[in-house]
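EI: anyone free to look at a 124-residue chain?
SC: sure, send it
EI:
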Amino acid sequence: MSYNNRRSHPPSTPSTTASTSSPETFSEQVANLISRYELALPQLALAIDYERNSGLDVSEHTQTLFSIYRKLESVLTSDSFRQEDERLQQRGRMIVKDTLLLHRTFDLRGAEAAVEKYHLRQFY
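SC: here you go
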């Protein structure tokens, strides 16, 4: 199948809600959210790179990244998160940094706006 008529779709943004099968602790929810983004971010980076090299408009990905920032901001700035394991905190900070670096590759102004809008300066 040819890729010419298809656009890659950004990975869906994971939710922080717990499943109905077994309640998750805050730590488990955060770890799962971070793990999903750790897996999704490289795929998104590849899609953006391919689209840029193909001359396609990648600006639509800014909204995907804003959605990621919005979800991470609510978790990473919570008091509960500040009490979490340092390793989990570090993983969360790395996801924000990696996402901002990716964002800067194609939309510097959007990345800077996200830093201000979602209070990410501390992670930058």
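EI: The chain has one domain: 26-123.
SC: 👍
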